[in-house]
Amino acid sequence: MGIILKKITKTYKEGQIEKHALIDIDLEIEEGSFVAIMGESGSGKTTLLNLIGLIDEVTSGKIIVDSKDVTALSPAKKTEYRKNNIGFIFQDFNLIDSLNVEENIMLPLIMSNYSKNEIYDKVNDVAKRIGIESLINYYPMQISGGEKQRAAIARAVICNPKILLADEPTGALDTKNAKIIMDLFVEINNQGQTILLVTHSPYIASYAKEVVFLKDGSIFSQKRRENKNRNDFYNELLSVILY
Ligand SMILES: Nc1ncnc2c1ncn2[C@@H]1O[C@H](COP(=O)(O)OP(=O)(O)OP(=O)(O)O)[C@@H](O)[C@H]1O
Predict the structure, then answer these.
(1) Of the CATH numbers 3.60.10.10, 1.10.287.690, 3.40.50.300, 3.20.20.140, which one belongs to the domain with range 3-94+162-242?
(2) Per-residue confidence (pLDDT) for residue 1, from 0 to 100
(3) Domain ranges of the chain
């Protein structure tokens, strides 16, 4: 699914004070892209992801997905759009504390047409892939931050969303597990899913095909990986950050 952002502005109001989180963002995300969003803390990365995921509302501008203005949908249609198209990995995981890991991961499939056995098979497959198969009977409060993050990733990818939105998905992970997740994202993206990922890490961003840099709510640079190897792309990203 391709996404076009047209003059997106997001202003938060705190009493009399207006905070411009995003200002006139124009961005085209082709179907099958893998885009990393980088920028300093407070530059608007999470806001951008939340707007695309329709969990926050634009102040002005349009978000066009497959030729449809999704910002104009009714609340019920927005929920339906999210359910049918979007997988979201939140910065603070958003696992449900009263459900164990297995139940959390299977949540997006509960309303699907899959049989119980198919659902358990899918949960087992993805949990194994991400290395948390031994934790599926534990509750979120019994596992570490990195394990929670991996459970949240499993939940987001289990129903093969057309668009995967990931906010710092490797922030709580060690290098080995971050690499497992990024390899999984590359595989998912190779199957045609569009991925948008927020990260502070140029190493993580170097897995993407394109990197968008935000500064004070505006895009200040965009880099494409094209046929560069990951190390060269990493160095290019580093030069933008250090500039
Ligand atoms: N709900 C809100 N109410 C008021 N201001 C907000 C709200 N959400 C975000 N902001 C402000 O909007 C700006 C952009 O925030 P955002 O969370 O998008 O930045 P970010 O680049 O994701 O930061 P970080 O890397 O620290 O997560 C910041 O100045 C932030 O304080």
Answers:
(1) 3.40.50.300
(2) 76
(3) 3-94+162-242
